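hi! just following up on the protien thing from before. the input was this:
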Amino acid sequence: MEVLDQTLIQTNERTVKYGGFWPRLGAMLIDGLILAPFTFGITYYNITSWKSPLLLVLLTLLTVAYKPFLEFTYGATLGKMSLKLKVVNLQYESATLGEILMRNIFHILPSLVTLYFTIDIYNDPEFADVTGFMQYSAFSQKFTSLQFISVGSGLLLIVDAIVLLADKYKRSLHDKIGQTCVIDQS
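and the predicted 3d structure came back as:
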């Protein structure tokens, strides 16, 4: 039996709900809360007591690998998982390692460049006298390269958020570079 105005063949068109700004921001905050006790604790003691460049490198590599590893392996970080968000490619399939790495390029490159310049701080003889976080903050001000990287990363984050807010598919600039999108699975 045919019903008027209804097609006989139903298309299997996928209905996709994209992860918007607020859920993605929430996921990012959750990831930050998960990583913060670990990273801030170790970083604090490394700056004030241990002063180990090797520990600095290891901690940086672990925090840089967090997002790409989880997004490639599980399709989401712990924050995204908790909010039922998933990173997929443009065919709504699991993203490849290359797509995930390109998607995270705004996080990976500034972190590695910052690491490179922060090693200079650890190698400075005056760094041995730094005993507190505020003292470290003041000491690091003389390394202007780090300030440029910080400002540049901040501006890039703002542009990334504006692109996300303006895009009808809720794709940020880093999603476009990685040929990915974030879908809401709830």
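Residues 151 and 170 are 25 Å apart (CA to CA).
Helices lie at 21-50, 53-74, 78-82, 97-103, 105-123, 133-140, 144-166, 173-178.
cheers
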